[in-house]
C-alpha cells in the first residue's frame, strides 16, 4: 500500500520567489474558524497579496483570501481578515529584530496541511529590484537552453 504524503499543499505563492530574495523560512500554525478549514480543504485560498504583520508579541497573517464556504450559512467567515499565527515568543522576537532591518519583510510562501493541522510557511525576504528579476529570468532561460541542447 503506498504511503500517504505527509504534507498537502493548499496554496503556493509563486510570486514570492519572483519578487523577493527569500533568506529564511519558518513554519507557523494558524488560528482559523471552522468554515475556513473546510474552505481550505477544498483548496480555495490565495496568498498573492498576503503579508505578515508583527504586532507586539503576536504575529498576524494579513490580506490572505480564503473564500467563503459554500455551505457555510450564517456562520461563514470574512474572506479577507487578519488571522493570528501561532509562533513561539522567541521566534516572534527574532522576527521583530530581522524585520526592523532595512528592506526585510515577511511573506507567506505556502499554505498546507501537516498532520491535519493548517500551517503556513513564512519567508523572510528582501525585495528584488527590476534588474534582479531580469537576471533571474535570464539565468532560467540559459538553464532551459542548456538542458534543451543536452537532450537534442
Query: What is the overall silhouette?
Result: globular
Q: What about the largest sheet?
A: 7 strands, antiparallel
- The stretches of 5 or more residues where confidence is low (pLDDT under 50) are none
- Indicate the proportion of strand residues: 35-45%
CATH topology: Small Protein B, Chain: A
Mean pLDDT across residues: 88
The figure for the number of domains is: 1
Structural class computed from helices and strand pairing: alpha+beta
Number of helices: 4
Distance between the termini: 38 Å
The share of residues in helices is 25-40%
CATH superfamily: Small protein B
CATH class categorisation: Mainly Beta
Task: Specify Rg, calculated over alpha carbons.
Answer: 18 Å
Keywords: Cytoplasm, RNA-binding
Family: Belongs to the SmpB family.
Protein name: SsrA-binding protein
GO cellular component, one term: cytosol
Could you walk me through the main structural features you see in this protein, from its secondary elements to its overall organization?
By secondary structure, this protein is an alpha+beta fold. 30% of the residues lie in helices and 38% in strands. The chain is built from 4 helices and 9 strands, in the order βαβαβββββαββα. It has a 7-stranded antiparallel β-sheet. A two-stranded antiparallel ribbon has the order 3-6.
List keywords for this structure.
152 residues, alpha+beta, Small Protein B, Chain: A, two-stranded antiparallel sheet, 9 strands, 38% strand, RNA-binding, RNA binding
Amino acid at each position: 500500500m503506498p504511503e500517504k504524503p505527509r504534507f498537502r499543499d493548499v496554496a503556493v505563492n509563486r510570486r514570492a520567489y519572483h519578487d523577493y530574495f527569500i533568506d529564511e523560512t519558518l513554519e507557523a500554525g494558524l488560528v482559523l474558524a471552522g468554515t475556513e478549514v473546510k474552505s481550505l480543504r477544498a483548496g480555495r485560498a490565495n496568498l498573492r497579496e498576503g503579508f505578515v504583520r508583527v504586532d507586539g508579541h503576536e504575529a498576524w497573517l494579513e490580506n490572505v483570501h480564503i473564500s467563503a464556504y459554500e455551505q457555510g450559512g450564517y456562520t461563514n467567515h470574512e474572506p479577507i481578515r487578519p488571522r493570528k499565527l501561532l509562533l513561539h515568543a522567541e521566534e516572534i522576537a527574532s522576527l521583530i529584530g530581522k524585520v526592523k532591518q532595512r528592506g526585510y519583510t515577511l511573506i507567506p510562501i505556502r499554505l498546507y496541511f501537516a498532520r491535519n493541522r493548517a500551517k503556513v510557511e513564512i519567508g523572510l525576504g528582501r525585495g528584488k529590484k527590476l534588474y534582479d528579476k531580469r537576471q533571474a529570468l535570464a539565468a532560467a532561460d540559459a538553464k532551459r537552453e542548456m538542458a534543451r541542447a543536452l537532450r537534442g
